């Protein structure tokens, strides 16, 4: 029953918490661990393109024809489409992390198997399975990246990561130069080693990827909100420690109805009934980029060999140049997708690349291209086309709901690539096989037209998604479920408050009452069984323990649901608040109720844990959630106290500020204590001890602030009593005199502090530490090299002696050192004290050394002005 209740309506701020994170090492781990899939794909495709000519040569060990290369390219793309569809639905059902590990494993096994190809059919099978792994990667990786990267940087990061395909392409091309060198590798060995290297790179990426967490957005929708909270808490803790800055509290939340699985028919309905225009947009973008890109990429080597007489061993150099231009496009233009906006940049890159492709086709017909002019024009064309192609993946990932994200990427990648990515290589392969450049130009004209259609679709159906939260671009299906309001029956009287939060609160309270009923039933069983257990019946004793645990679990579950209801009510209060202060306070109290609910859930998990270790972990997490709840409450009170202080004056304002400071420090103490409990749950005692020390610091600061607030209260009371007794005037003068004494004491303390710090920096070393100084004698520990510190009494005495020297010089004017010592009575100070005090006076500008061992007071400002 607890699990069923937990799969109910949930309000969370996880998306807003993830979007407001500053850039950190965590995000670099995402980029490196997940984004490298495009490097693999680029490496894979480019190796095939680079070694294509070698595979068609006699003695290669497989002897494919130019048409076979086109078939292999088409089969690879067909495998990618199949893999995207198959693994895409599994990604939405079983999670991002499981699938991006599984699909990478599929790629590694298949690409290594390709190295052992001995016949065309075996080569085709390996290419198909390799494509399945890469296609599945597209679905799992794009969805995970967009859900883990902050909204403000999502566009450029996604564009650049997709563009990193060409980093792999460049590496593959340059590596192929070595692998195709027959003086290093035999003609039937080099291309096999090239495929083996791809598998090794995949294994390295898998090692990095193990540390990438599951998407918290996917977790809370599928009923695993506690795991999602732990992941986000850990990420926030790491970001705080790295950036040394406090994270602002997110205010935006989302309410969802959790579900374990969502049927495929419901996902398809979203794409074609709820968002039909977005479906057309995704299809147009994918078809355009897939046709042009796959055709040119897979067949560039054969184009260069057929029409420009480029040797097979030289083709990889041209591939490397081609890849560099393709990567520079997303790298240099990626930022503009977040600043200028999605629609102008996506449509612009599609239109520009279309126009340049037309120009390329015209030159192919006229025959006005050399090898280098052809490569230059291709490089400029794909500088823009690369950014546009990357934006297709970004667009489909953004514009569909969270529950359908991976399958939407897979679906549009599959149908778009099937329509464009398979037909493109097949058509170009056939046209190149004719040896007629004018026929190849037809293929370029077709590619230009399809790219132009993609740009037109963006202009008409494009979505302005820059810097927007994914949940605002396309509301999750489960969120829409949670917001559906029941229809009111005729004659039912005044309509109830049907806001989602209010309904969720009522539902939580209903479940809480059901849990209390279960608890009462278990207590009744306890009373029935206890007499037999007391008589020594072992079976009854065991049942008694079980019933007690079940009763406690039901009670805690009821309390948890009640706290969830309080959280929903708090958010309703925030919506109805009349001032910003009331709204913020209500939101903080709602968050505190959520944390208390989380603490109760962890207690239940601890009670039901399979072993002592798990029980301790859940108990620590429960304590952490309880401390976070206390921190939220303190923050709410601090917000209210700051608001009161702004509206008050005088002593009352001082008291309110003291209250606010006290609450602030208590909040920080509870937050640090919560982090200590989390560290203990993770078995990191050193980290826990560090947070405990920080908590003690904040506790002492809170007690100090509370004492200052109490002092302000007493001063206010004293002023009121003085006003009543008629002694307000003398009391005010006494207060001013006391304030002056405090000011002088603070100045003295500041002088002493500066002296101590200066002495610490200039601390004597070596044999000089044996010389006496102010406050030290020949038998003092400081002389023996131990870590001595100046006592407060010695420093106060030194300050008094420095002031005596300054006063004597002010009264007597320039004075010899011997006379000055007599005037101030230095012989009574102790050994070395006068010398140390005189040195401090000179250093602080209170005494000015002159010739013949004389000292004078510092020049007055009027004297300096005259000079």
Q: What are the key terms here?
A:
three-stranded antiparallel β-sheet, single chain, globular, mainly alpha, 867 residues, Growth Hormone, Chain: A, disordered N terminus
Summarize the structure.
This protein is 77% helix and 2% strand.
Task: Give the SSE map.
Layout: H1 2-6, E1 9-12, H2 14-19, H3 25-55, H4 66-94, H5 96-114, H6 120-148, H7 154-163, H8 165-179, H9 190-209, H10 216-221, H11 225-243, E2 254-257, H12 264-274, H13 276-307, H14 315-333, H15 336-339, H16 342-366, H17 371-398, H18 405-434, H19 437-461, H20 470-473, H21 477-483, H22 500-534, H23 538-576, H24 580-607, H25 612-647, H26 650-681, H27 685-725, H28 728-761, H29 792-812, E3 815-816, H30 817-824, H31 833-843, E4 848-850, E5 854-856, H32 861-866
Antiparallel strand pairs: 1-2, 3-5, 4-5
Can you describe what's shown?
With 867 residues, the protein is mainly α. It folds into four domains: 6-243 and 253-473, Growth Hormone, Chain: A, CATH 1.20.1250.20; 504-576; 579-597 and 612-721, no CATH class; 793-866, Orthogonal Bundle (Arc Repressor Mutant, subunit A). The protein is built from 32 helices and five strands. It has helices at 2-6, 14-19, 25-55, 66-94, 96-114, 120-148, 154-163, 165-179, 190-209, 216-221, 225-243, 264-274, 276-307, 315-333, 336-339, 342-366, 371-398, 405-434, 437-461, 470-473, 477-483, 500-534, 538-576, 580-607, 612-647, 650-681, 685-725, 728-761, 792-812, 817-824, 833-843, 861-866, and strands at residues 9-12, 254-257, 815-816, 848-850, 854-856. Helix 3 crosses helix 8 and helix 24 packs antiparallel against helix 25. It is globular. The N and C termini lie far apart (91 Å). The relative contact order is 0.07. Mean pLDDT is 78; it is low at 1-6, 485-495, 764-791 and 863-867.
